[in-house]
Amino acid sequence: MAAGDSLDTVAARFPTNSAAWAALAARAFEADDVVSAYAFSRTGYHRGLDQLRRNGWKGHGPVPWSHPGNRGFLRCLALLARAADSIGEADEAARCAQFLRDCDPAAADALAG
Known about the structure:
Blueprint: H1 7-13, H2 18-30, H3 34-54, H4 71-86, H5 90-103, H6 105-111
Helix pairs in contact: 1-2, 2-3, 2-4, 3-4, 4-5, 5-6
């Protein structure tokens, strides 16, 4: 990412990068734009799932927070739980929060708040 690149530019240039989508979701939350936060976090979550599966993950098991490459996905998952809760999707929020904890309790603890 070059100095001065906007988050929008980075996400457009690197659409498979979950960290960019997580940053966009966090920015949307800061602007009190919960629907955009939901959309950005869901996009990053799905792009992260795609990447995990390409790397051999079978849909269950650990996704360690200690591995920097997993952090964008895990952030998106935490933000998706928060956004789902904010729009009244309690079941989705609970599933996402549990999935985050199942991926790595350290991630859930680090991203709590």
